[in-house]
Amino acid sequence: MAKNRKLNDFLGKYPSGYLIFQTFEKYRQSHVIKHHGFLGIENKDPDYDFYIQSKLFASRSLKEFIFRHLILPLFLGKTFDFISYLIRNRLGDFKDKEIKYLILFWIAIFGICFYVNVLDILLMYWFVPLLTSFPMVGHFIEMAEHFPIIKNKREIEKSWNRFGNKIELFFTGLHKENYHLIRHLFANIPFWNLDKAHNILCKNEEYRLLNSNMGGIFSSSNKASSL
């Protein structure tokens, strides 16, 4: 998130990860090392294991898939599964040193909110969305990043860039998250350079052809099919 390593470490914890109960080191281990390093390998890639546990590949018909994975999540049907996945792969173990900082951070937040008498606002406008809309949006983002192509053999064919309309990207494309294929091909590129990287990669015929067939989750801004 920043060029300065100490600032990046701070931003990745206190004003972001800790607010949604995700530790920096656990995210690095589960996402950067395991997911990026072992993409699509069962029992090594936590995201792929989540696909399997969510039965994304188990639907016997298109109708069943639409109901189970597109309609049910809108009514919080995937909330428990998604939160369980985050607790296992993003929160960390209580033996981890960083958990102590996260707990102290939230004790401070609760203390301040109690002191200024806004605990009800914290609960209604942070924890309720955290347990409802956040898992719902997260489910669709996770699914749209690699499904169903994660089983492909070549790295360039395992991830999607997403080109939804402006409303969809407002909710699901923050910090250029819609450039997911680039993030897997070149994980060290900071988000502020992803537009530039995308334009350079479009000079490659294979990337350009794959990219032209990628729409968004529910909408498309480039006339390609959405998920």
From TrEMBL:
Q: Domain named Fatty acid desaturase: which ranges?
A: 3-201
**InterPro entries annotated for this entry?**
FA_desaturase_dom
EC number(s) reported in the record: 1.14.19.-
An example Pfam family from this entry, by short name, is FA_desaturase
Which ranges does the record mark as transmembrane?
A: 65-87, 99-118, 124-144
- Keywords for this entry? Membrane, Oxidoreductase, Transmembrane, Transmembrane helix
Task: For this entry, list what GO says about its biological process.
Answer: lipid metabolic process
- Name of the protein: Fatty acid desaturase family protein
In terms of domain of life, where is this protein from? Answer: Bacteria
Query: Which molecular-function annotations from GO does this UniProt entry contain?
Result: oxidoreductase activity
